[in-house]
Design brief:
Low-confidence stretches: none
Strand content: 5-15%
Structural class: alpha/beta
Largest sheet: 7 strands, mixed
Radius of gyration: 23 Å
Order of helices and strands: HHHHHEHEHEEEHEHEHEHEHHHEEHEEH
Number of helices: 16
Distance between the termini: 64 Å
Helix content: 40-55%
Length: about 425
């Protein structure tokens, strides 16, 4: 394939000094680039000119954005929030999010990784990662309990194949199943996606399991595989039990091996309870990465954003930046975390005080996030879901034969009734 000269420059950086990242890219990942010499680049060069007839925005005669007052009055924001954000994202927000990543993962303090590139929420970040690393027919390795939107992103969107391994063994994460999944097939590119806290189960690896996962991925890279670790950190930070890893796997993988590229996919959607803002982030790191190589990955990611949606919403980015600069942010975030942790603790109490529930369903491992799952006994999960709606006015989700319960959306006082309804429905169905 003939690449654009700008793509060739990025590819050269990702091949320099024995760097193996170029070999991890999909064909489209190799071809993508940020059009720094196109409209955006020319507009940047013209910035500050007395007369600037470059970017397609509309301005008042005084140079401020031309806006509708009926729209502006709904927002307590300056007019520049109406302008386009860069395809890389608002630079101040990118800086603030990287600072937050380090604050929440203090082991990263002295480690090198890219500046985050802003996507239109985390689903878009996952899609951009798929664009970068997966060709049609490529395999992405995922635990068998996973968010069903991965199928649209990887299989329908990219023509890739999802290959699953067993999620749980003996009440914890099945690290041996991950090792076997990576060892199968020939030495090649291995794309792995790990999601902690997990959707649908609400499980995060323990500290011991996280260390073992990192060891397994590093061993695979040492064996000659080019390993791309996609880390879906959508629910990051919402951990409710001791002994569970509180830092992202990104911390352990970002400098683990030259053949292991860690890709952190995160955002404020679930962490900061702004589901409709549609802002996410992509960060990259690998052992021995130079500043130029990390910048090349940023440019490829920004090129995908540019060619797909142009840029993420500027207004959302402005609001988030203001929140992160607020003195109240950390305190308010702690309060919301405690709301969810209280519900988690109530669930533990309910299950402990009703041993009879074990006759009707098995509670799957859960220690974090928004969700938990139960495995019904003696009844079909989909039929149970329908009975819960029709006879008990209780809505649930069925995924992979499990019933997913979003305790994040259930008032604390109704949690005991939720489990009683499930128990009663199963008993009624098995009479």
């Amino acid at each position: 394939m003939n690449y654009n000269p700008l793509a060739e420059q990025l590819n050269a950086e990702l091949s320099a000094n024995g760097c193996s990242v170029f070999g991890m890219l999909s064909e489209q990942g190799k071809a993508i680039f940020f059009p720094s010499k196109g409209i955006l680049g020319q507009g940047a060069e013209a910035k500050g000119s007395e007369i600037n007839a470059t970017i397609g925005t509309a301005l008042e005669d005084d140079g401020s954005p031309l806006t509708l007052p009926c729209v502006q009055k709904s927002l307590n924001l300056p007019k520049n929030a109406f302008l386009y954000a860069p395809s890389y994202g608002n630079p101040d927000l990118r800086k603030a999010w990287k600072e937050q990543i380090i604050r929440k993962n203090p082991t990263l303090k002295d480690k090198e990784f890219s500046n985050p590139v802003v996507s239109c929420a985390l689903t878009h970040a996952i899609s951009c990662a798929a664009y970068l690393f997966l060709d049609a027919g490529d395999e992405v390795i995922i635990p068998d309990l996973y968010w069903d939107n991965y199928e649209l992103v990887f299989e329908n969107g990219r023509g890739a194949k999802i290959s699953t391994f067993n999620t749980f063994k003996n009440g914890g994460f099945d690290t041996e199943a991950l090792r076997n999944a990576l060892a199968s097939g020939k030495t090649s590119k291995k794309v792995v996606l790990l999601n902690f806290p997990n959707n649908p189960t609400g499980y995060t690896a323990t500290e011991k399991e996280a260390a073992e996962i990192a060891k397994i991925l590093t061993e695979s890279a040492t064996a000659g595989n080019k390993v791309v670790a996609l880390l879906d950190d959508a629910y990051f930070g919402l951990v409710y039990e001791e002994g569970v890893t509180k830092e992202s796997l990104f911390v352990k993988l970002v400098d683990a091996h030259e053949n292991l590229l860690a890709v952190k996919l995160d955002g404020p959607t679930k962490e900061d309870y702004v589901w409709g803002f549609r802002v996410g982030f992509m960060s990259f790191g690998f052992k021995g990465a130079t500043a130029a190589q990390l910048k090349a990955l940023e440019s490829k990611a920004a090129g995908i954003v540019r060619g797909n949606i142009s840029n993420a919403p500027s207004i959302s980015q402005k609001i988030l930046l203001a929140a992160y600069q607020s003195e109240e942010y950390l305190k308010e975030k702690e309060e919301k975390y405690n709301t969810l942790k209280k519900r988690f603790n109530i669930i533990k109490e309910v299950l402990a005080s009703h041993p009879e529930y074990k006759d009707a369903f098995e509670a799957m491992p859960c220690n974090s996030g928004y969700f938990m799952c139960v495995k019904p006994k003696g009844v079909d999960a989909e039929e149970l879901r329908k009975v819960l709606i029709s006879d008990y006015s209780t809505g649930t989700i069925v995924l992979s034969g499990l019933v997913r319960l979003a305790f994040s959306a259930v008032p604390a006082e109704k949690l005991p009734k939720l489990f009683d309804n499930i128990y009663s429905a199963i008993k009624k169905m098995t009479k």
